[in-house]
Design brief:
Elements: H1 14-19, E1 22-28, H2 35-45, H3 54-65, H4 70-75, H5 77-82, H6 87-103, E2 106-113, H7 125-142, E3 148-156, H8 162-171, E4 177-183, H9 195-203, E5 208-212, H10 218-227, E6 232-235, E7 243-245, E8 251-253, H11 255-262, E9 267-269, H12 271-276, H13 288-293, E10 298-300, H14 305-308, H15 312-323, H16 327-340, H17 345-365
Parallel strand pairs: 1-2, 2-3, 3-4, 4-5, 5-6, 6-9, 9-10
Antiparallel strand pairs: 7-8
Catalytic activity: adenosine + H2O + H(+) = inosine + NH4(+); 2'-deoxyadenosine + H2O + H(+) = 2'-deoxyinosine + NH4(+)
Protein name: Adenosine deaminase
Organism: Nocardioides alpinus
């Protein structure tokens, strides 16, 4: 995609992609556990797993998630959520999440989860958020300042606790929580069911993203933006349905697609996950290719690292292999993500100028 004066750009190696600074906006805490951690936590509480050892369990998650069905994909969370019902377990999972992301070269991440799914024991919603924050802070401290991580609090779209979770996000806004989200099956559960929560968040000058346009089409995206006022779109893959590529190669954007591009609304795209849930056929056929050519505000994400057996390095290198992207292209994705983060402007700018740009400049200079 990128053209460098005087020579043909060279796609980076996997090692270079791993070394590059990366920014992650769409990652689920309960979708990124280490298999060994699940085995150990399940043993502590007597929860029965579909496999007894970490290697077999990891394989089971990947195979179960690779079904082409979002509903089946979401069922795999029954086991991860089951072992995250007490403070020490949640803090451990959060700490290991930060450690794993830092080891993958992620310098900033927003990690989301639904507090309401972790109170089947005796924890309150507030205690759940506190446990996650404890783990994040431990992980960041252990990284020596190499990564900054913030929470996104998610409400489940098939439940009725979105206002409660929105209020929780505001209560924790200056203590590690960057924003709000809704997730879960889209069909039959439109975002407008939670309009009171979104209106409350807007009155509080808060940031929020909405899962939309993954398993459901343009109406879900339209409602998320025009009724609910989403700052970002979780996935947003189906915006491609409003784009027509004519036989002569010309491209025509429908009204909604043009709005998304004109307004620079960030798309939190997760290629591996989108393929597993049937939202895309393959990396090479993923809408991210055309959307990048058309200069939508595209970002690259992992979604659920355990279920997809993935990492930011793997997601980005998959795109390199599919589209011959260069380090300059990966830098563009990364700056897109950092610009779109729910972090104060000066903090976003500092990470771009002091971490992202120098990190890529060093790698590009090595070629």
């Amino acid at each position: 995609m990128t053209q460098t004066s005087g020579r043909t750009p060279t796609p980076p190696t996997r090692e270079q992609v791993h070394a590059a600074p990366k920014v992650l906006l769409h990652d689920h805490l309960d979708g990124g556990l280490r298999p060994q951690t699940i085995v150990e936590l399940a043993a502590e509480i007597g929860h029965r797993l579909p496999a007894d050892d970490a290697e077999s369990l990891g394989r089971w998650f990947a195979e179960s998630a690779d079904s082409g069905s979002l509903v089946r994909y979401l069922e795999t969370f029954d086991h991860t959520v089951a072992v995250m019902q007490n403070g020490p377990a949640i803090a451990r999972v959060a700490r290991e999440c930060v450690e794993d992301l830092a080891a993958d070269g992620v310098v900033y991440a927003e990690v989301r989860y639904a507090p309401e799914q972790h109170v089947s024991g005796d924890m309150t919603l507030d205690e759940v958020v506190a446990a996650v924050q404890e783990g994040f802070e431990e992980g960041m401290a252990a990284s020596g300042g190499r990564i900054v991580v913030r929470q996104l609090l998610t409400a489940m779209r098939h439940q009725a606790r979105s206002m409660e979770i929105a209020e929780l996000a505001i209560a924790w806004r200056d203590r590690g929580v960057a924003g709000f989200d809704i997730a879960g099956a889209e069909a039959g559960f439109p975002p407008t069911r939670h309009l009171d929560a979104f209106e409350y968040l807007q009155r509080e000058n808060a940031h929020f993203t909405i899962h939309a346009g993954e398993a459901f089409g343009l109406p879900s995206i339209w409602e998320a933006l025009q009724w609910c006022g989403a700052d970002r779109l979780g996935h947003g893959v189906r915006i491609i349905d409003d784009i027509t590529v004519h036989d002569d190669g010309t491209v025509e954007l429908g009204g909604l697609a043009a709005y998304v591009r004109d307004k620079r609304i960030p798309l939190e795209m997760c290629p591996s996950s989108n393929i597993q849930t049937g939202a895309a056929e393959s990396f090479a056929e993923h809408p991210i290719g055309l959307l990048t050519e058309l200069r939508f505000r595209v970002t690259v994400n992992t979604d659920n690292r355990l279920m997809s057996g993935t990492s930011m390095t793997q997601e980005m290198f998959g795109l390199v292999e599919a589209f011959d992207y260069t380090l300059e292209d990966l830098r563009w994705f990364t700056i897109n993500a950092m610009k779109s983060a729910f972090l104060p402007f000066d903090e976003r700018l500092a990470i771009i100028e002091k971490v992202v740009k120098p990190g890529y400049a060093s790698l590009i200079g090595q070629r």
